[in-house]
Amino acid sequence: MELPPFNPIVKPAKVAPAQINSLRHLLRLHNLENPEESILYPSAHVAISSHNTAEIWLEHDKTTPLRKVPLYYKYRSVPKHSGGMRILSEPSSSLKSLQRWILRHCFTDDMVSPAAYAYRPGVSIKDCAAVHIGAKWLLKFDLKDFFGGISEARVYELFRAIGYKELVAFELARLTTFLPDKNIRRNIQALYNEKFEITPAARNYTKLEISIDSSSGPYPRYRDSAGKIIRGVLPQGAPTSGIIANICAGELDKELASLALYNGLRYSRYCDDLFFSPRPDHEHFDRSFAGLMIRDVDRAVLKHGFRLNQGKTRVVPPGSKKLILGLQVDDRVRLDTAFKKNIDYHIRGIAKFGLQQHVAHSKGNPPPVLSFLNHLQGLIAFAKRIEHWYGETRETNLKKALSISEVTR
User: Fold this and answer.
1) 201, 197, 208: which is closest to 183 by C-alpha?
2) Is the distance from CB of 386 to CB of 325 less than 8 angstroms?
3) Residues 6 or more apart whose Cβ sits within 8 Å of residue 54
4) pTM
5) pLDDT digit string (tens) for 280-336?
6) Where are the alpha helices (DSSP H) in 132-227?
7) Integer distance in angstroms from the first to the last C-alpha of the chain?
8) Which of 60, 193, 269, 365 has its CA 20 to 30 A from that of 376?
């Protein structure tokens, strides 16, 4: 189904975004701030043309040897908790540096809806959960493929709405999106390097050949055998993806916040998680009311070019534990009891059996000892941000447990 067009409304920024006149201008500004990650124009030109696909080789001139383009993504698949695989995309060092420059200079915090709590400096999941303190009912929604559902075309329209010229907006969109399908990437790589080896899967990929269309400007666009333009999407892993996704979801946040206000509810969003709860003085909220809200939220989400993961919609009634992003909300925001028990279990195990023995007897495949310790310390650091006293005491207890482990080893 064709999704509706995206028409962003960007609020006036307190500090104007950087003025960028061309790709050369962008690279000049970036290289002045980041000389250790200096990027040459020919490299950036080919990277934009190939949409940052890896293993592209570029010849700068007759006397310069072939050199790898520094702007690309490393891809790996990891299993999801809910089943299936998730593609993680890690920008190369140079591309990440350029994206961080774009993040600092092309966007401002006031472009993001106040209902969005992820990817905002000084705002945390605790703030998102605090919106719903004292909730008797809780509605929870999940946006399906949040980053992957935001196309290169929507990102281009966003940069145009901010005020950038067409070509600059296209270049910025290419630098902040990626091609998620590995077979398409490998076919594009072959267009730039005749010696590039294509896997059988990529060679037979829907029995199509990727073609270049340069008719619309200086950078080629890619079309499949049916003539459809191949577009990128926001990658999970790029520094710019969070704020771009937040701004693209701005009109959705605005409509959902209005819907919540009209119905006497509170609303907050953290990345792809949406939360609604009735205000304390709401007297008519029941399952029937919740059903109507689910219908209206689904309509609003589709209207703004997103989709709900229907299997993750939840209605949490009175008497059930109210969890938002793993945090309990009753009279205050606090850590979940199960989360605390997990930390305490590991600290006791380390104190009693020693670090290595405790890790060795962990359920499933035991992780490396250092990775396990880093993970546990990360859990305690998170606990300190939510319940400082609890986190402080567990940090002290872990140090004592590790000291005992060293003595008894």
Assistant:
1) 201
2) no
3) 72, 73, 74, 75, 185, 189
4) 0.85
5) 888 889 999 999 999 999 999 999 999 999 999 999 999 999 999 999 998 999 999
6) 152-162, 166-176, 182-192, 200-203
7) 62
8) 269
